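seq as requested:
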Amino acid sequence: MIRAARADDLVVLQEIEVAAGRAFAAIGMDAVARDEPLPVDELSEYQRDGRAWVAVDAADRPVAYAIAKWVDGLAHVEQVSTHPDHAGHRIGAALIDRIAGWAREHGSPALTLTTFADVAWNAPYYERLGFRRLADDAVTPGLRAIRAEENAHGLDRWPRLVMRREI
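struct tokens:
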């Protein structure tokens, strides 16, 4: 089941992000694996604004989450993380679909995201979900700003790209 994130979920979302991030160490991306999760106050902004969703288990405990924001008039998938104990069950795909429904309700014609080009559960996964890689000249100013922030954070040590999925 997917529901809106609640304030009492936010610490669990951090735990999910840390656990999901560990997979990057197995492919030599230790810096990504060690990256700090989003702070609770930042997650709280998404939650209060209705831009945070969780997939929950039978006990209503979050096992995955997604957050979105607006970038250049389009819904932008800021983060999708699934706890490794629950990976492989299309939970991330369901969360992306939930964001797409929210985006459609709010008039966005597409979803965007930034991701690692060569990580199996990143760009290739999103392509299977209907996203396409954007050419550099199709990247909007807001997305360029996000890419610049990612570069400043050191993420461009590995190839990254911008993707878009029409709704």
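The two ends are 22 Å apart (CA to CA).
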